[in-house]
Amino acid sequence: MKTEAVLERQLPGRVSTPAHGRALIECRDLGHTYRSRTGADVPAITGVDLSIEAGEFVCLLGPSGCGKTTLLNMVAGFLPPTEGRLRVRGEPVTGPAPERGVVFQDYSLFPWLTVLGNVEFGLRMAGSPAHERRRRAAELLALVGLEAAANRYPFELSGGMKQRVAIARALATDPALLLMDEPFAALDAMTRGALQTQLLDIQARTGKTVLFVTHNIGEAIFMATRILVLSSRPGRVVEDIR
Ligand code: ADP
After folding, report:
1. Is residue 156 within 8 Å of 150, Cβ to Cβ?
2. Cα 178–chain centre separation
3. Which of 13, 165, 209, 222 is the 20 to 30 A CA-CA neighbour of 134?
4. Residue range 16-33, pLDDT digits in tens
5. How far is the CA of 65 from the centre of ligand 1 (A)?
């Protein structure tokens, strides 16, 4: 029998069940409408009520144009909510922050920096000393299996390698949350499969919480511990499958 249950028997009414930890991401009636200067406004996401706990691997799944990227961009702090409330670790999201690492579909590496320079970038911005940046970047390149490519430039890499650099870069500031927007959509099927497996391995080793956008049902089933299915625009969560 659990300790709380034993104590409850001995001290009835005096034992409180421990509260669950605060959700890492909390959305209440959250929505975003794109305001158009010329045409009609575009409601992209509406009425999203959601709590995501630390350690979950959550896929946002839905048809193209249903608002997945909009929701992810709100959590990233790139877009403000136009309705409702969004909190990360209990604090309202007011902009991007190092606790939220982002990986985009199009790699978005800095072409003038080497692989090492790209991975070190966030740490440089955060004012981390050179030796510390080097150590952390080397560790992350080992994690994604790219130690040998440290001094190469993005144009010398395959799509899969670029995306592994982007993942290492997003992890550099040790974020609590990894936000990924269709990160493997542009890759061929074999590379995609390899990166999916590698990402699951990285998540298992780092314990990061992942919010992952995809329109691929197979990918969501393979990757996620929880799938949130969005309706067509304006997107709302119509299924929450654990
Ligand atoms: P998804 O990621 O599911 O494909 P998005 O979040 O990119 O969907 O887009 C949701 C809807 O919002 C789409 O209809 C899209 O055309 C519209 N939209 C996205 N960005 C803008 C914008 N900057 N201005 C106006 N409408 C937009």
Report:
1. no
2. 3
3. 209
4. 333 345 789 999 999 999
5. 6
How far apart, in Å, are the Cα atoms of 9 and each of 4, 19, 29? 9, 19, 40
Ligand 1 atom closest to the CA of 62, numbered from 1: 3
Read off the pLDDT of residues 44-77 as tens digits, 9 standing for 90 and up.
Answer: 999 999 999 999 999 999 998 999 999 999 999 9
For residue 137, which of 162, 118, 164 has the smallest C-alpha distance? Answer: 118
CA distances from 119 to 106, 146, 171, 172, 206 (A): 16, 11, 8, 7, 17
**Nearest protein CA to atom 1 of ligand 1, as residue:** 65
CA 241 – CA 224 distance, rounded (Å): 10
Tokens of 127: 């004012």
15, 8 Cβ separation under 8 angstroms: yes
Nearest CA to ligand 1 atom 14: 65
Q: Of 186, 122, 139, which Cα lies nearest the Cα of 158?
A: 186
For ligand 1, whether the C-beta of 67 sits within 6 Å is: yes
